[in-house]
Every structure is written in structure tokens, then in C-alpha cells.
């Protein structure tokens, strides 16, 4: 198992291009199962989760052609199996997103309960309730979800989610695209990745409105056609590099990303003392050599502060000037990385779902172990601001969500390399 060896000390400085969004690409890949014609998806990031989703589609007999730039042409109509096996689903929670498309297009789906990061309970009951509202018959047995569409196919329904759920919104949205009649999703997730999925479905011929708001309206169509679609840039990757530059008192220019999906993050970075400028597809951040100021964070669904950026800001706050409170309201285990940061000299205490952080000038290098994807990124940031050599273990989490992370940090002047176990 590989590790990352990081020598901290200097500020990051330079320019990098933001990769395509993992969290948008995965549901979009699943959505191609809805089409009766080939769909070309571009700007896919080179990530383990993407190759896992491609392998999952192939395991169901779906024909795929991958080009040299990891653009993928997928012919969903060639799918011969409607079972997503445990061996693939166990490694990636987003595998559950094939449930709605398989059910809507083929009338049947059998999907193993998903795995993924150990950041807390993420039940799929909202997914299942939405599909049941459209007439699906759901059975859960031996670790598998089996769903069968009623005679004549899924039908439009009014679905009120008990809680904001990104995956649930995506699954029901995709299923509704081929349902008979109108489906209205209330209390729907508003994330930019939901908007990207809806825009891809619209390019395939779906009739959708309200995406980006809490109410999404879908008028089902008989069939979806092919298209070429480019995945949006990864706002979480962009935010991670911005925070890393702020924590190291550096400066950075990001290409291929606009500010509109990062507003909550940019507001907090300005509050931390960063000079931030942006244009249509670029963002710059400059700390002008200053130590960041401590900022309070509370994670909430979009458009509020994203849970996927909490760990990175916790790392920045560990070396910031002042005392901060970071409250995690989405996942109960997402403050677990603070224990590893304390091993590096951070001053963090936990009460319930809130971390109280007293910033210190520098951290001290230590071997640390990542527990999930974003915790991995936060420990890399901690290593960049620590004196000495930090060894980050279990970086397979990083490879699930960050494309070429060591190459990009090297381009920013970091001293970082991958080492064998």
C-alpha cells in the first residue's frame, strides 16, 4: 500500500488546472444506462472511483469505448445484466446510483448495498422511498436491493424527501426521466453536481426544470437519445488546493474553475485573510505571506458550507491565528482526522460534533493514517505546514478522489513523493 512522504516548510505558489468532478462524473456515468443510443462523456478525472464505475458498467454487459483522454462512449442499450455485484459495489458508495437507471430502462435492478468511506451512516432509505412512490416493488434480502417496475413502467409521483439527500435526489431524478407522467421532487438536493446531472439528462432528451432549487420537476419521456457531454470541474478539488495555499501562506492560480460553485468556501478564505480574485474560469488566492486567521465553520447542505471541505479547513485552522469552532452536521464521523492532527502538535478538542481549535504557528511531522477521502487531503495539508517529514498512510482514499495529487502539489513547489509500503 503506497504512502505519501511530505516535507513541510515553504509556501505553495504556482498554477494548476482543475480536473473534472468525481461527484458529478459518477452519476452521469450511471445515467448513460438510460439512453437508447451511445453517449460520449468527456472531462472525466483519472481516478480509481471512475475506473470502478466503468468496470461496474462493463460487468453488466454494457459496451464502452475509452479513448486516450479517458473520454468514454457508453451504449446503455447493450446492457445484458441488471445486477450490480457486491465485489464492485462494496468499494464505492456511488455504485448505488445504477439502481434508478436500471429500474427505469430495463424494469428490474438488483444492486448490492454500497460501501465507501467510513464517515458515518448514509442510509439509502430515501432512494428506495422515492422509487416506491413511482410504483417500484422493493425487496431487501441478503445484502442486495431488488427493485421491479410495475407493469407499464414507472409512473410519475410526488416525492418529498425527509432530509436533503444528494444520492437520493440523483437516483430518483434519473428514474423519473423515463417514468410515465410528471414527477415532482421536493426538498431536493441543490448541489452543482445535481445541476450537472440534470443538464446531461436534458442533453439526452429529458424534460427537467427547477434543478438547482429545492423543487425539481421531471416530465417523463419515452426514450433518451445519445449526446456528447463534458463533466463540470471539481469544486472540492479546487477548494482543497485553495485551502492548502492559504494554510502555507502561499499563492495559487486555478484554471478551469469558476467561482459560482465555491461561494461559501471563498467567503471563508477571504475571512481567513486571503486576497481572492476570480473570472469566468479562473480563481487566484494570495496570502501575501500572512498567517491565516482562524475561521468558524458549520457544514450544511448546498449552498451552505460543504462537508467535503470541512477537514481541509480544520487543517488550516490548526495553524491559524486564533481560536475556531468547526461543527460537522452532515456525517457523525467526519471529525475523526483531528486525532491524527493532534499527533502532529495541533491543539484540537472535540465536544459532540464540534471541534474547538487553538491555532499554533507550526505543526510537527509525524506518521499519520487517513480514515477517508477528505481526511486524507487534510493530512496532506497538515504535512505541508509541519516541520520535518510527514508520512501519510492509506492514501488509496486520496486516489479515489484526487487526480495526480502529488504531481499537482509538485507543480506548486511542494516537496512530496509517493513511496511504497
TrEMBL record:
Domain of life per record: Bacteria
Q: Which residues take part in binding phosphoenolpyruvate?
A: 22-23
Q: Alphabetically list the UniProt keywords.
A: Cell cycle, Cell division, Cell shape, Cell wall biogenesis/degradation, Cytoplasm, Peptidoglycan synthesis, Pyruvate, Transferase
Which residues are recorded with the post-translational modification 2-(S-cysteinyl)pyruvic acid O-phosphothioketal? 117
- Cytoplasm: is it a keyword of this entry? yes
Q: Where in the cell is it found?
A: Cytoplasm
Supply the InterPro entries for this chain: Enolpyruvate_Tfrase_dom, Enolpyruvate_Tfrase_sf, MurA_subfamily, RNA3'P_cycl/enolpyr_Trfase_a/b, UDP_GlcNAc_COvinyl_MurA
EC number in record: 2.5.1.7
The answer to whether the entry has keyword Cell wall biogenesis/degradation is: yes
Reactions performed catalytically: phosphoenolpyruvate + UDP-N-acetyl-alpha-D-glucosamine = UDP-N-acetyl-3-O-(1-carboxyvinyl)-alpha-D-glucosamine + phosphate
Q: Which residues form the active site?
A: 117 (proton donor)
Q: What class of enzyme is it?
A: transferase
- GO MF terms on file? UDP-N-acetylglucosamine 1-carboxyvinyltransferase activity
HAMAP family per the UniProt record, alphabetical:
MurA
Q: By what name is this protein known? A: UDP-N-acetylglucosamine 1-carboxyvinyltransferase
Amino acid at each position: 500500500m503506497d504512502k505519501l512522504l511530505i516535507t513541510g516548510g515553504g509556501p505553495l505558489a504556482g498554477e494548476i488546472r482543475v480536473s473534472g468532478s468525481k461527484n458529478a462524473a459518477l452519476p452521469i456515468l450511471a445515467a448513460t444506462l438510460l439512453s437508447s443510443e451511445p453517449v460520449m462523456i468527456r472531462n472525466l478525472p483519472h481516478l480509481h472511483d471512475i475506473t470502478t464505475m466503468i468496470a461496474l458498467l462493463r460487468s453488466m454487459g454494457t459496451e464502452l469505448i475509452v479513448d486516450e483522454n479517458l473520454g468514454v462512449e457508453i451504449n446503455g442499450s447493450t446492457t445484458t445484466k441488471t445486477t450490480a455485484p457486491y465485489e464492485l459495489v462494496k468499494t464505492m458508495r456511488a455504485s448505488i446510483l445504477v439502481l434508478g437507471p436500471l429500474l427505469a430502462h430495463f424494469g428490474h435492478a438488483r444492486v448490492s448495498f454500497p460501501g465507501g468511506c467510513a464517515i458515518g451512516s448514509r442510509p439509502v432509505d430515501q432512494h428506495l422511498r422515492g422509487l416506491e412512490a413511482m410504483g417500484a416493488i422493493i425487496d431487501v434480502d441478503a445484502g442486495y436491493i431488488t427493485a421491479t417496475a410495475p407493469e407499464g413502467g414507472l409512473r410519475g409521483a410526488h416525492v418529498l424527501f425527509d432530509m436533503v439527500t444528494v444520492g437520493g435526489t440523483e437516483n430518483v431524478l434519473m428514474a423519473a426521466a423515463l417514468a410515465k407522467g410528471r414527477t415532482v421532487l421536493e426538498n431536493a438536493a441543490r448541489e452543482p453536481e445535481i445541476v450537472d446531472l440534470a443538464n446531461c439528462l436534458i442533453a439526452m432528451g429529458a424534460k427537467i426544470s427547477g434543478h438547482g432549487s429545492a423543487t425539481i420537476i421531471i416530465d417523463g419521456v419515452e426514450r433518451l437519445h445519445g449526446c456528447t457531454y463534458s463533466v463540470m470541474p471539481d469544486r472540492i478539488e479546487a477548494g482543497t488546493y485553495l485551502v492548502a495555499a492559504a494554510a502555507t501562506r502561499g499563492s495559487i492560480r486555478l484554471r478551469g474553475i469558476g467561482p459560482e460553485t465555491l461561494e461559501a468556501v471563498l467567503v471563508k478564505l477571504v475571512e481567513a485573510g486571503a486576497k481572492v480574485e476570480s473570472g469566468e474560469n479562473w480563481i487566484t488566492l494570495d496570502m501575501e505571506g500572512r498567517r491565516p486567521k482562524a475561521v468558524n465553520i458549520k457544514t450544511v447542505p448546498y449552498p451552505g458550507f460543504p462537508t467535503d471541505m470541512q477537514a481541509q479547513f480544520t487543517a488550516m485552522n490548526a495553524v491559524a491565528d486564533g481560536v475556531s469552532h468547526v461543527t460537522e452536521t452532515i456525517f457523525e464521523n467526519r471529525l475523526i482526522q483531528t486525532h491524527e492532527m493532534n499527533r502532529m502538535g495541533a491543539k484540537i478538542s472535540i465536544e459532540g460534533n464540534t471541534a474547538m481549535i487553538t491555532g499554533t504557528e507550526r505543526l510537527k511531522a509525524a506518521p499519520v493514517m487517513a480514515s477517508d477521502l477528505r481526511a486524507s487531503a487534510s493530512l496532506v495539508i497538515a504535512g505541508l505546514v509541519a516541520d520535518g517529514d510527514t508520512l501519510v498512510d492509506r492514501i488509496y482514499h486520496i486516489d479515489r478522489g484526487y487526480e495526480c495529487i502529488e504531481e499537482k502539489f509538485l507543480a506548486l513547489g511542494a516537496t512530496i513523493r509517493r513511496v511504497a509500503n
